Amino acid sequence: MSYRIVIPGLVLALKESMKKLIIILIATLSISSFAEDFKFRPAGLESYIDQPSYEDQIITIGGFEIRRGDLLANSRISEESIDCLGSEQKSIFDDKVFQTSLNAALIATVLHTTLQAPEDKKKHALVGSLIGLGTTKICQKFFSGDDNRLVCALTGAGAALLAGIAKEVYDTGGRGNVDAMDAVYTFVPGALISFKF
Length: 197
Description:
Number of domains: 3
Order of helices and strands: HHEEHHHHH
Radius of gyration: 34 Å
């Protein structure tokens, strides 16, 4: 008698499982067929054939359109004198020795400030870093380009120095302790962060 109850239950469970399996199979096949349309395909040769060459590109100078090749041919510049890579002028920021020295100074400043400086000096270092970084980033926003990195770094360092001195002048009015080292702790991290970023 128990076989008569178990077998129909198994058949019913098997039918339900088959229905679910068929639904999953249909969903998988339909998703994979749609996914084929969105699959990444590398650019073929046809996409490069339609692109004009460097010499065939049209450029506009003062309202006049001219082919790059014609401009080069009529400019009396020999192809040997054109450096395709360009002569990159290296700045102090690209110098490995400068970057290594800056990193070492920044690490030493952070270690000294966190391990040995009093709480007041830590606050000055944090505020100086934020002022230096913020001023540098604002300067870079207005004066974009790699050639202005030195100007922006000096601006950030100057802002940190000015903030340190201004705080000490403010403290001379009896509002706090006057300590020249507070200005130093404000300036040095701010200057290092300005030159780093």
